[in-house]
Amino acid sequence: MSSNAKQPEAEFQDTPHDREELGFATRTIHHGFDPAAFSNAVQPPVFLTSTYGFASVAANEAEAALGGRLYAREHNPTTEILERRLANIEGAEAGLVVASGMAAFGALTLSLLSQGDELIVHRTLYSNTVAMVEQALPRFGIKVVPVDLAEPANLDAAITERTRLVYFETPVNPLSAVLDIAAITERAHAHGVQVAVDSTFASPALQRPIEHGADIVLHSLTKYINGHGDALSGALLGDAETLHKLHETGLRYITGAAISPLASFLILRGLKTLTLRMERHSASALAVARMLEEHPAVAWVSYPFLDSHPGHAIARKQMSNGSGMLAFGLHAGFEGARRMMDRLGLITRAVSLGDADSLICHPASLTRARQPIRKDAHMVEGVGEDLIRLSVGLENQEDVIADLRQAIEAS
Ligand code: PLP
Fold first, then answer.
1. Angle (CA) 277 128 268, round 5°
2. Is the CB of 391 under 6 A from ligand 1?
3. Residue 157: which residues within 8 A CB-CB, separation 6 or more?
4. What is the pLDDT of residues 95-154, one digit of tens each?
5. How high is the pLDDT of residue 2?
6. Exposed e or buried b for every residue in 71-90, given b needs 16+ CB within 10 A?
7. What fold does the segment set 3-271 form as a domain?
8. Which of 13, 59, 236, 292 is a Cys-bridge partner for 55, taking CB atoms 3.0 to 4.6 Å apart?
């Protein structure tokens, strides 16, 4: 073991790129990484190690005071660059990156909530988050209270002295509905309750919930932040005290859901083009939404930056652009959706979202297909059998529109 081992955290102390006056896109590329501290490598190194040697017992004692960097479940330099960068661009004090978005939700709830506590959630959530709040958390004595947060005043009746956290997505998966972060947060805070927002559908390039008062932000990094469909990960961003709890209890010994440093590297790489990608996703999705809105076979379209969207004014207040996610239904309903899906030639039939490739799914047929093996599979509250969810990718928008149009017209 070398005797001139670095002081813990020396490689992260105030890198030359940590100036707060730098623009958002610049920080997605540079924040938190000083090449001079890593052999002048322009790209962050991938530290494939499960453990870290210490020079002496005394050196270990000194490191322990700084958080103990002994083992890769708790610390990895590549992941730490990602955590610092994400916290910075989200406007948070600290960040935690774990193995998936669901691992982030698990770390959040199992670290902050205990038996007898109450969690308020919006009535519509990503389907596996629904499974967790309906099936898993109650087994551990955590009461989950679904509320329609489209009307923030509903919170007043739902909050009790046992309420510890309010959790919702905006835009909401898969509806692309929009919830008012500032209004919900104001009411929750009036009762001393923390608010966590899943901002996966927007990404920090378009929406930063902490700027609207939220306490914690959750992302599935699997989606827009990585953007290339080749890694799973999730993040929690917020104040330093809460993040310390999430790291020390959630990651260290409850979920243990550490991300591979190779995935952290891929996500750091993807993040560098987030700003550009979100501009393109948003422009193409708006064009697709307008085409669908005018098409006679289409019954409804939900896209936050369409004037017809019920949450349009809220979306304009808290998002800088509409993102690439939209939902729509055909007059031909469930069967029409199945037929249309099968006629697509370019857009990929797949779950997930936020990739360069356009991805489309029909939750009702996915749910029916799952029921023989997962008896509890059911449609999420508020999601109709006709709903088709589209993640508009980075292809030429005319090609995406042409593929949709021919599939709709042939069905
Ligand atoms: N939150 C939202 C809004 C999602 O859409 C997803 C996944 O689709 C998740 C969380 C879970 O993330 P992951 O798939 O990375 O576990």
1. 30
2. no
3. none
4. 999 999 999 999 999 999 999 999 999 999 999 999 999 999 999 999 999 999 999 999
5. 34
6. ebebbbbbbbbbbbbbbbbb
7. Aspartate Aminotransferase; domain 2 (3.40.640)
8. 59
Cβ-proximal residues to 295 (8 Å cutoff; 6+ apart), any chain: 405, 408
What pLDDT, on a 0 to 100 scale, did the predictor assign at position 67? Answer: 65
Say how many residues make up the chain: 411
Residues of the chain with pLDDT under 50: 1-8
The amino acid present at 6, given as its one-letter code, is: K
pTM: 0.95
Ligand 1 centroid – CA 377 distance (Å): 17
Give the pLDDT confidence score for residue 55 in this predicted structure.
Answer: 85
Task: Name the fold adopted by 275-410.
Answer: Aspartate Aminotransferase, domain 1 (3.90.1150)
What residues are paired with 390 via a beta bridge? 326, 360
Q: Residue 102 Cα, ligand 1 centroid: separation in angstroms?
A: 6
Domain boundaries in the chain?
Answer: 3-271, 275-410
Annotated active-site residue in 69, 223, 252, 389 = 223
295 CA from centroid of ligand 1 (Å): 30
* pLDDT of 7: 41
Q: Phi/psi at 54 (nearest 5 deg)?
A: -125, 145
Specify whether 117 is catalytic: no
